[in-house]
# Entry
Amino acid sequence: MKLSRDFYTQKNVTAIAKDLLGKVIVCKAEAKLSSGIIVETEAYSFKERGCHAYNNKRTARNEIMFGDGGFAYVYLCYGIHHLFNVVTNRSGCAEAVLVRAIEPLQGIEGMLSRRGMSKVKHSLSSGPGKLTQALGIDIAYNALDLLGNKLWIEDSGINYTRKQIQSSERIGIDYAGSDARLKWRFTVKDSPWLSRV
DNA sequence: GCAATGATTTACT
DNA sequence: GTAAATCATTGCC
# Structure
């Protein structure tokens, strides 16, 4: 079942980040479906320095984060990697959840060919830049409505208990000062698909 | 208009 | 463990 707009427009971005664990991200690329179970997320908010929209700084790139939740925020990092975020909260509150790792589910052959691999292994989708390449997400998917028919997130019926969800410091944002120490990274305990331990 | 830089990955020492 | 790859976005001139 596709997640509703009500889910994405909740105010608590960290709660949404936790709820997204176990959900299934589905992407339609070249008329084929690819999907995977979300096992790792990070929360970002305009209230802290790790976020592109920190201090309500509005730019052409992050404009989509200032709109209503339920839209995709895709952008290029380090000139090489596409990162996929889910915009949350209501219009005017720029918050988003970064999807960092998935467990491959459907369309695995397509993922392998896009990644230039021949066998399914941990490195297929264990990282934010890797999973977008595996699913076929690129900048063309930016600002897409997650209630549309190209890219969406489903409830698979998986519900992790609090014991199965771990929180830790976010990765790769040392420049954010003390905000870099917020425990806003959420992972599924013991999942073999995490980007790092 | 131009220089600096990053929510990463990969390869090499 | 460290460093290079590589370019859109950003901020400043």
Q: What stands out?
A: Residues 13-20 of chain A form the longest helix (8 residues). DSSP finds four helices and eight strands in chain A. Residues 42, 44, 50-52, 75, 77-81, 83, 85, 98, 100, 127-130, 170-173, 175-176 of chain A lie near DNA strand B (CB under 10 Å from a C1').
